[in-house]
Amino acid sequence: MRVLSTLRYIEIISQEGSIRRAADRLAITSTALNRRVLALEEELGYPLFERLPSGVRLNTAGEIFVDFVRRQFSDFERVKSQISDLAGFRRGHVSIGCPPEVMEEFLPEQIALYRQNHPGVLFNVMRQYGTEAEDALNQLEIDIAMTFEPVTSPHFKVLATALQRVLVVVADDHPLADREVIRMRELVGWKMIIPSMKTGLRRLLQSSLLAHPLPLDIIAETDSFGFIRHYLINEEAISFTIPVSGSLGQRLKTIPIDRRDLRDGVLHIGQLKDRVLPVASAKFLNDLMVALERQFPDPQ
User: Fold this and answer.
1) 97 occurs within a structural domain
2) pLDDT on residue 3
3) Could you tell me if 147 and 99 lie in one domain?
4) Closest residue by Cα to residue 145 from 111, 105, 202, 94
5) Largest Cα–Cα distance of the chain, in whole Å?
6) CA Rg, the chain, in Å?
7) What confidence tens digit (pLDDT) does each residue in 275-289 have?
8) SS3 94
9) Same domain, 235 and 271
10) Quick check: 163 and 262 in contact, CB under 8 A?
11) The pTM is what?
12) Residue 221 belongs to a domain with what CATH number?
């Protein structure tokens, strides 16, 4: 696998921006690593890096080559996973980018269920939002993306969706806690913790406020549901979530926002268009789609 090692070396040099730092990371000498680079450039007939006083930087040819490298390693992982299937056991690596709402309950449960049958599979779960997850798919940094509002990349192949009604979160002794449904105007005057700007939930709330401006008493912005849970039991305030986040604890209650004020958002699951996923990733993606449909069936 010497060729694959050389390809990996090129990618690491591009990440580090320095042959010396890449050599330290790879635990080889910078002289040996530089020889590998020069030999590859000679074989290609074109340099891959611009040599700078501070290190190295990919040129256009290098960027094309590194994109090729990433795709080669993605295909290699898929082949290894297929070979493992032939051997009668499952190994592999699954990379997922998703918003924090999914990481609270839904995704941990699905990973645990999957690993009951496939304990050799390693998961890498990254907190990513919208275009960040779409870009990670394009760069082959993740296999599966889950995004909440909206999808912007034409290369994101949406395979399943689920409508998510926006919920107000309050402590169980809050004056609003007995409401069955709530209007946005009834939130005026209450201290409020809102989702951070990069979240899909914040964008959805903003769309409602643009159409119907309201004076809000915002005391904090966060994408941490742990922060929200602990804060709301310490001060009479409100926040927001969506159903895929799951249970928020015994001392909190959720109240649906009236759809006249705020439409349902859409949770998407997908992958990079035209990419053949490794077996482990493809199987887990299918399991996610089934679980999403079971928990959040399309309204009749």
Assistant:
1) yes
2) 53
3) yes
4) 94
5) 73
6) 24
7) 888 888 999 999 999
8) strand
9) no
10) no
11) 0.73
12) 3.40.190.290
**How far is it, in rounded angstroms, from Cα 143 to Cα 139?**
10
Distance, in Å, from the CA atom of 41 to the CA atom of 69, rounded to the nearest integer, reads 14
Could you tell me the end-to-end alpha-carbon distance of the chain, in angstroms, rounded to an integer?
A: 54
3-state secondary structure of 176: coil
Tell whether 103 and 239 lie within a shared domain: no
Element (DSSP H or E) covering residue 264 = none
* DSSP SS3 for 114: helix
According to the 3-state scheme, what is the secondary structure of 5-72? HHHHHHHHHHHHCCHHHHHHHHCCCHHHHHHHHHHHHHHHCCCCEEEECCEEEECHHHHHHHHHHHHH
Contact 228, 251 (CB under 8 A): no
**For residue 4, what pLDDT band results from cuts at 50, 70 and 90?**
low
Which residues span the domain enclosing 95? 90-161+266-295
Nearest CA to 8 among 68, 60, 49?
A: 68
Strands of 120-127's sheet, edge to edge?
120-127, 91-98, 144-148, 265-272, 156-164
Determine the 3-state secondary structure of 130 from DSSP.
helix
